[in-house]
Structures are given as C-alpha cells and as structure tokens.
Design goal:
Blueprint (H helix, E strand, L loop, with lengths): L9 H9 L1 H4 L8 H25 L10 H26 L1
Length: about 90
C-alpha cells in the first residue's frame, strides 16, 4: 500500500488491492491470477472512464496523497518483512 500511496486516486487503487476476492487468495491460490486480472481490468476501465470524464468536463483530479500515511505504511511493511525473515530463519533451523 505504501508503494501506491502517492497516486492521485489512492482510495480506488487500494480497493483493487484489498477486495476480498483478491486478498483472500489463501482459500484458493490457483484462482489468484484470474481474480487479480479481473480486478485490474475493472480498475483500468474505471480509470479510463474517470479520467476522460474529468478531462471532458474540466474537473480537477483528486489528490489523496498524505506523507504521514506513506511513512506509516512503510513502517508497517518494514516490520512485516522483519517478522517474515525471522520466521523463515526459524523454519530453516
């Protein structure tokens, strides 16, 4: 999430990353790519429609960027990576 946090339309990008059908892939890992492709396709269709609508009606683009949120997500990702590395190290011992 920190990776995409600087995008103008952040909430919509997060939606495609966090929708249950995609994020709950542990229940059916073989279906992950199919669900991911559908989510990305729908997002791209929305993005094309939204951008062309805004341009044709001279509407400003949204900007949801918040540096403190990016830092927070970055810290969370770093801690998660540390815990994962520790669990791999423990499993290999």
């Amino acid at each position: 999430m920190a990776f995409v946090s600087k995008l103008d339309d952040l909430p919509f990008v997060l939606a495609k990353l966090l929708i249950p059908e995609v994020s709950d892939y542990a229940a059916g890992p073989g279906r992950y790519m199919y669900k991911r492709i559908i989510a990305l396709y729908l997002y791209m269709a929305w993005l094309f429609f939204d951008r062309s609508h805004r341009l044709s009606h001279h509407l400003p683009m949204m900007n949801w960027y918040d540096p403190s949120l990016t830092r927070f997500w970055g810290k969370c990702a770093k801690e998660s990576a540390r815990k994962y590395a520790l669990s791999v190290k423990t499993a290999l011992q």
